Amino acid sequence: MNESKNQKRKIRLIGLDLDGTTLTTDKRLTPHTKEVLEACLKQGIEVLPATGRVWSGIPKELTDIEGVHYVISSNGAAVVELATGKAVYTNGIAWERALEIFDLLEKYDTFYDAYALGNGWCEGRFYDDLDAFGIEKFLQPMVKRSRTRIDDLRAWVREHKAPVEKINMFFLEEENRQRAFRELKDIPDLAVTCSLTNNLEINHYTCNKGDALLNLGKILHIPMEQIMACGDGNNDLEMVRDAGLGVAMENGEDSVKEAADYVTVTNDEEGVAKAIELFCDLEMGEISGE
């Protein structure tokens, strides 16, 4: 639903999707949005980047903001404490099951890699040929920065025996993506979502950003009614739906907007900053410098 609310709320934690939400289309954190987030932190509101990206792929301009203590990575597979680099909550795919899933993915014409131990791991056959899988030029530097190139993903997983946080897929052809989605979504122990128009993301079936947000709230003794969440994509649905105040972006998926309590303007119009200013009782002087 889309309610025109203008009342201030008691918000103590804000979960923020990044791509399509907090960041502009060209992946920037605007100065004003950063100032709003800093004002939240100065007033004791936890600001929580919540992304499908692996931890190492989260922009430093967000994690380096003084007062940001935690991040949700890999669609909720890990909640990482930044000061220690340790996960305070995890919900991954067992490494043995991940090997079986890799074999399933070979039937599709797709790029795939795995997020584990806070990093992305990508075979050279994919890493060296991103164009062949429809990965847009402006995304390619970010994809490469957040992955380590390896020769054999299966061998790496067998050696490290680490739970896989997320399996990411990119497709050149939409028909192939839809076929993969139809088949994979019916596998009971998997959650299949997307954050881009040409990708699919595979997590453990109980894993989502909403689950991670709820569990961090329990750790911090913050009830869901005092949690705000902002998102735009299919992988933000549970977080936006389950938070005490769910905010969808105007550029978001219809399903997310329907689940939200409020629809703000687009990410390129600083919709996150506007929603926070609307609902959180911030001292505006801290934002304007007055």
UniProtKB/TrEMBL annotation:
The keyword Hydrolase applies. It comes from the Bacteria. Keywords: Hydrolase. Pfam families: Hydrolase_3. SUPFAM superfamilies: HAD-like. InterPro entries: Cof, HAD-like_sf, HAD-SF_hydro_IIB, HAD_sf. GO terms for molecular function: magnesium ion binding; phosphatase activity. One of its GO terms (cellular component) is cytosol. PANTHER family: HAD SUPERFAMILY HYDROLASE-LIKE, TYPE 3, PHOSPHOSERINE PHOSPHATASE. This is Cof-type HAD-IIB family hydrolase.
